[in-house]
Amino acid sequence: MRDNPVFKIVSKILFGPIIIYGLYVQFHGDYGPGGGFQAGVIVAAAYILYALIFGLERVRKIMPNLVIQYIMALGVLVFAGTGIASIAFGANYLDYSPFADKIYKAQHLGIIIVELGVGLTVFAVMLGLFYAFAGFKPKK
Amino acid sequence: MSVIYLILSNWNFIAVIMLMMAGLYIVISNQNFIKKLVGLSIFQSSVFIFYISLGKVSSGTAPILTGSPDTIYSNPLPHVLILTAIVVGVATNALGLALVVRINEAFNSIEEKTLLSLKIEDSRHAYEKDDSVK
Amino acid sequence: MVEFWVNVFLVALLVVITFYIIRLKTLIAIVALSGAYSLTAAAIFVNLDAVDVAFTEAAVGSGISTILFLAALRYLPLEEAHQTRYPRLSLSLCIIVGLMLIIAAFELPNFGDPNAPAHLHVAPRYIEESYPLFHIPNVVTNVLASYRGFDTLGEVVVVFTAGLGVITLLAGSTLSMRFVKIENDLDKTNKTSKEDA
To answer: What residues pair up with B32 in beta bridges, in sequence order?
Structure first.
């Protein structure tokens, strides 16, 4: 089934638009349904689709295991680091108000950064789960 | 007639409890670990549906502000809680799956009955080690 | 009214799907049905105004979760081998607990009641206060990332930890192989040293 040209061409065509849609969901989550959790899963789904058609090794070339593990930690760090930054500005943990002069601008900025952290972690974890299950080699 | 009305007006809660008990039944009585995991996820999503049903306001709309003052919105708080719980649920489910895969690798079975009758020495890794020592 | 009947129908569909999950023995069919279950649940969430939740459930529950189950089934036996254990006992237990819960459920506020206690305290404040403060129309995002940022941070850490757990469990095989190899080498050197002595 993998050699079927229909699957190959469709997955190649869809790969880019799915990622762009994921980014749209990520950064438009303030105005419509969406946000970091959904966006991370959608972007991971693009890579998983590619892996299902072209094999795991080719996806590992563009997104190696180590990079995935770094992105996983990076997302949590971005989220927690935002809290530390607001402490450094003299406010409470995860209080975004000192980030800009007007409160709505500050909240907007804080929410976008935090959602980015969520998106990164969820993307990396979902793809990491798929890598772990698909690339598992049982001892026989 | 009033009984039907009572059931229909509480239909979501009744059905959620039925789903919950179905999940519990699968977890208790089935031997297969994969089926147990599916039962666990059924139990889990029945709780999700229960929360969302509690947050519904009749003739309300999704909590995305429209700007007009007389719009009724559903309760956004359960949505937030469940949104994160779904992602966490899948991640923990995957952890369970990984354990099941490892159990199958070590003991060659994912049935509870078979596993309970085994001992640690029956693990495939233990056999391998013994062979290498001999 | 249409919303209400659609809801009744979809929830009934969920119950039917669950019944078939209980009956079936083939694991692939069970996994496929659980994907269908998630998709139906997503439709219910749309109908109950929880668009964000529906989005997540459709992407995560019926997409990623099904793929992970199928990927795991590659290494597992595909049929359930044994009969159910104590079916009558567990069935009667579930029915008794379920009846008790259903009796308790009649005490809940009616479905969709706008005067239910849950809608009177925190939620109105979120809805009224968040636009003047944030200028962001999606209340769910506001609550998720700002009002309850701690909560979300905790959930992200849980997802991260679960991911780490799976990676250590499955991708850690190379490491354990190395340990086995080291042990074998140690055994060999011990044997040779004994022979030398």
So the answer is: B111
